[in-house]
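Ops channel
N.P.: pipeline sanity check, posting one input/output pair.
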């Protein structure tokens, strides 16, 4: 078994394509993808904030403050004259204007006597345009001014003003520590990333060790060797599992390294402080829980590779597995699903929930019994099926 493992691992290390998927892809491509997403998102937000918005205003004579505030910012807003009876929706969809303000005739009256006043803002809010936020900044300034004028007319002190604005407030007293707060935000995404990386890293060697051997004609040489079939399977299985774990660890380490290099000093301090809160035992447990998970992936992938007639057919089978891997993680992210009751015994979902709890520091360590038991049972059953599959000549030589 170990002889097969060493042999397969040496062949993988000689294969440039496999090394690319296991090392180069995690170290370069995934950080590049995340960096590109952050870069383009930041640029899109910046462009939306700096874009000069074309606008039209109907009833400008009823509020000189708003019309003047818009006119005083030519680097942000450009006024377009329109017919007051035009179809506003058509003008906005045709991109003649980005938004239209409609000020009613009763605007500017005494709010103490007539109550609050409303201005209609017509816009297309389906995309990232920040029209509402940018216009609301101007309207909010006017609203604050009207509010202060009204308080002055009533002769209210600052304390009385605050009492009227917020007569009863609910003060938040969060008993969760910083680690739990951060863990709740990012802990759920950790298994999402690691599961996909383990599967992705194991796919390339799995397709090669089964279907690839069929195409090269080397499978027959292995089968006529005096070694028992189960040892052949276990050697290939260990190779695939080791490749999956290696790929996941390289990717996570690469993301952490790139994050430290590209982040600002404040961000590094926050990341370092958060990582320091997580004990080494929790890191070890996260890694140990990956072992039966990778065993499940490796057994399924090897079974599919043995069944497939060609390398291409094996890849098509394996690509559909991503859906089945994502489903347990999505369930773990669902509100109300916690690591308790029957969820402790649901394979993959329980591991995703446990990783989140370990990052948060709220792990019930007794739940590890159910997690390791259920996941290990599934893994052993799949390995047994893989050995059974490998012993069938009609499967090997389809």
């Amino acid at each position: 078994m170990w002889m097969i493992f060493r042999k397969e691992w040496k062949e993988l290390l000689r294969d440039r394509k496999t090394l690319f998927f296991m090392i180069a892809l995690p170290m370069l491509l995934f950080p590049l993808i995340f960096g590109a997403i952050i870069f383009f998102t930041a640029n899109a937000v910046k462009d939306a904030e700096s874009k000069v918005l074309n606008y039209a205003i109907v009833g400008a004579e009823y509020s000189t403050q708003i019309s003047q505030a818009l006119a005083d910012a030519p680097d942000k807003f450009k006024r377009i004259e329109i017919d007051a009876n035009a179809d506003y929706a058509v003008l906005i969809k045709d991109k003649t204007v980005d938004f239209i303000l409609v000020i009613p005739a009763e605007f500017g009256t005494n709010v103490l006597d007539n109550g609050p006043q409303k201005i209609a803002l017509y816009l297309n809010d389906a995309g990232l345009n920040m029209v509402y936020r940018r216009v609301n900044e101007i309207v909010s300034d006017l609203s604050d001014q009207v509010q202060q004028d009204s308080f002055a007319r009533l002769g209210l002190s600052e304390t009385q003003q605050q009492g009227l604005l917020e007569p009863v407030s609910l003060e938040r007293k969060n008993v969760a520590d910083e680690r739990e707060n951060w863990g709740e935000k990012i802990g759920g995404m950790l298994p999402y990333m690691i599961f996909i990386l383990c599967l992705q890293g194991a796919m390339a060697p799995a397709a090669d060790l089964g279907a690839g051997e069929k195409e090269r004609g080397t499978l027959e040489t292995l089968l006529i060797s005096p070694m028992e079939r189960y040892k052949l399977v276990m050697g290939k299985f260990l190779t695939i599992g080791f490749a999956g774990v290696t790929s996941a660890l390289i990717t996570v380490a690469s993301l952490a390294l790139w994050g430290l290099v590209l982040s600002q000093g404040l961000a590094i301090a926050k990341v370092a402080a958060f990582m320091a809160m997580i004990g080494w035992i929790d890191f070890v447990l996260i890694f140990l829980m990956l072992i039966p998970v990778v065993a499940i992936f490796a057994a399924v992938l090897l079974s599919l590779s043995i069944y497939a007639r060609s390398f291409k057919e094996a890849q098509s089978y394996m690509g559909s597995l991503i859906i089945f891997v994502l489903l347990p993680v999505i369930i773990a992210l669902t509100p109300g699903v916690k690591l308790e009751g029957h969820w402790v015994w649901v394979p993959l979902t329980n591991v995703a929930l446990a990783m989140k709890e370990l990052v948060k520091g709220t792990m019930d360590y007794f739940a590890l019994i159910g997690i390791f038991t259920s996941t290990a049972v599934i893994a052993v059953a799949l390995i047994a099926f893989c050995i059974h599959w490998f012993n069938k000549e009609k499967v090997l030589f389809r």
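N.P.: looks fine end to end. The chain has 18 helices and four strands.
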